[in-house]
Specification:
Length: 769
Amino acid sequence: MAGAFLRRPSPAYKTAARRALRVTIAATAGFYVLLYGFDSAVGATYALFGAIAMAGLSHLPGSGRQRAVLLAGVVPVCWVLITLGTYLSVRTWSAVLGMLVVGFALAFMAVGGPRFAGGATGLQLMYILPSFPPYDPASLGERLAGATLGLVLLTIAEMTLLPEPAALPYRERVARAAESAARCADRLSSAPYTLPEATLGIAQALSTGLRSSQVPEAERPAGAGLRSRALAHTGLATRTLLGRLTVLPPPGSGAVTPWDGGTGAGTAEGAERDAAARGVDQDGDAAEEHASREGRAGAADVAQDGDPEPLRAVADAARETAARLRGSSPDGRAHARLRQVRRSLTAADDGSPVVLRRNAALLEVADAALAMSTAADIAVRGRAADVSPSGPFWYARMRAPQLWWRRLSGHVGGRSVFFQNAVRISLALAAARLIAGIDTLPHGFWVLLATLTLTRTTVRETRATERRALTGTLVGALVAAALLAVAGTDIEVYAVALPPLMLLTFTLGPVKGVGWAQALFTVVVSLVFAQLAPATWQLAEFRLLDVLTGSAIGAVFGLLAWPRGAHDELRRSVAELLRTAAEIVVATTAQITAGGRRVPLATAPGHRSLQHALVMAESAYAQYQSEPAGPTPPSAAQDWQAALIAGHHTLWGADRLLVPPEPLVVPPLGRQAAESAIRTGDRVAASMLLTSARTDPTGDTAQAPAPHHSSMLSTALADDPPGAPRVYYATVSWLAALSTDLARLDGDGDGGTGANPSAATGSDAAAST
């Protein structure tokens, strides 16, 4: 027993206690100064709930200084929300309409990344607070002053009271990974043409460190702005480069090495690690150069000579990228040299199949390094970077409003989980405000607060949450009623008890769960309102009634609006993704075999549709990751990330095959090579369509035949047609990798290791939801 008391608190308790201390000091200091120093009950209420809203009920990411910067930007937004709530609350219909519009807008902010999603709940509360009696626009000044004082005190507390150290910036993470890529390229450019275990382990660890789940939320480049997109693109390209280098076979090995993203040696775990970083860019537009496996299966036989020049050029470009990300201003010679090397690899169309396979493998390495270097230049210099705004760098010349409009418009529609969540919560809040206004519920503010904090994305999760919350609220109400009955009008008792109780609430609540949080918070608000006006034990009864009403409203709208959360939406979006990818596969192979002038992928039919399908599938998968498993866990035979990998590989491979560095007219493939490429492309596309039919929840999946992915792969690795040019080997490599992706999706790839790894990446969902 003594050992239990002497046991050191867990890191979760330490983190919660630090945050609880800051919010308690800021909230109670503002509350007591305005209530007892200036006799302003209105200002005191807004000071207290302003601090609680943005620190107790929200989750602003980052260190103390980073949160302080976010809070400074939030203050004007809170002024607008309080002003709107004050004037619209005078009439019930205007209050309901305002709740509908503002509630949707604030919830839809999640498309902007963790910084926006983290503050959405607190901002909702800042609008809800003035939407209830007293309907007194004349007190607007007191309300704004109180909220400002609470937020200022919270900002000071975040900067001075036990601040957490800043995490490693994402730029530095990418710079370290780029340096590791340079070391790998140097090693592979000379005998023995292999990577030592230590170097390989470091490269894999640095690549994994760029996963969104491994990057603190405040450091994730998840925004829609130019530099944020470019930095995300840099990280994705760096992971691509590391993955390709770590599986590059030695010259003359004649081996076929499946691509695994450099993080799992061809296992499903490696595929999951490679795919998880896609959560950092919510609209998927920067993912054309994403970590991919094409080119490894069927393109790994290499020439006998080491051919060190491409790898040395890659190493120099990687070191130049690391220096640029750290603030230096390199002259760009390494980048220019790598472009020349890539051009020579593209032009090399003569030689044995072994040589052509080697060139195809080196070309993929050079492509990844060029993408990394170019994206890093944009991330550092913005629109001043000397980059052509085409292909994967379409965003290089766009201004922030254009990029934000693209992000927002891409998620407007019933297929976006961000849109679904915003509609669900806005309708629930509007209904709660209507019921509270019509029935004139005492303390109707608590009804909306319960609706806001207890509604989840699935009916099952909402029901489980509300059951625990109501149990906790009942216990808290009984304790509060007893305390109010014993203390009566002795305000000093409430004033003394409030700070330690608030500290306990925000320490235990985040760790112990919603039941504890509701129980303790019920007592806290009872002590607060008992100091604002005379209160009896019935105050606890009103609290229980309001929480019950709010949770019931949340449950109803959870049942009516997308009750299964992201489960069906994920299946539907993956099916659409695979259908669109199949179209791109057929169109790309047809254009390659026909020859002629290359058409940029961005203008090809279906390209924009595939990008949008990736957006929807990735956001649905992110929410799916955040939802707890039901009574029947997801089938281990379906690896959803393999579908996302296949979508990214389709875009990336088609872009690489169709878009040359300069205008180019290519001859058609020979008859045998063309027939082989078209046959393989058609079979891979057919496999995508069959998998899509079996995945789509709106179709009869039981009637859809199971695709035979092994035959797709064996066809892609068939004997080389005589006289096949380099582009043939690149094409077949791409198709073989897509076939491997599809095998993983259906659980028959990687030697039976295709188990669903989703349980390991729940934290990735925070960037999206």
